[in-house]
Design a protein that fits this description.
The structure is a single chain. This protein is an all-alpha fold and 208 residues long. It has helices at 4-26, 35-47, 51-70, 72-95, 103-123, 131-142, 147-164, 168-189, 193-198. Helix 2 crosses helix 3 (51-70). The longest helix has 24 residues, at 72-95. The radius of gyration is 16 Å and the shape is globular.
Amino acid sequence: MNDFPKKSTFVFLGGIIQGLGMGLFLFPQSIPSGGAGGVAILLNHFFHMPIGPALWLANFSLLLFGISYLGKRFAVWTILGMTMASLSINFFETYVTIPERNLLFGLVMGSIILGIGVGLLMRQGVSNGGFGVLAYMLAFKRNIAPGKPLFFFNGTIFFITAAVISWKIIFLALMSQWISTRIVDMIYNYQSYEVYEVYTIDWRHKKG
């Protein structure tokens, strides 16, 4: 239980930072932050659903696939993280504006900030939701960093999103993923033995 305040802090912080990168830099320029971000943009495009709630819906739907494998505690922490991210996205989209946007600057900054947020979540054994759940499952099973499988899953959604909205999205989205997933791996791998020390195969039965 001593780790609970620390974990809560990093999950809240990771979700807020993730939302900052997406809501302030990536989404305003229609750059999908990931597979769930691409789905959110499609929901916004077809049904005019606000990006924040659309992202939460996409994340939650994909999270259902991982509950039976990763456990209810994982799901609760992930829901907390992705809820903070969605609230953060709505806040920055509503109350913070950048007068003169530069596409390259927004792409790089948004991707770096996104990677920091997702990396903080995954170091706590928490997915960022969406296809991050599938990437975390694969990373946990094979004892690898989650960046590469996350890049593959998200890339597939990018092609679908680009086919519907604009093909230029592919280049922007893949560049964003290339940057952000490397930041994720850097943070996740930093003294990564701490993560595996806490989350073993029986991690669902441990307190923390």
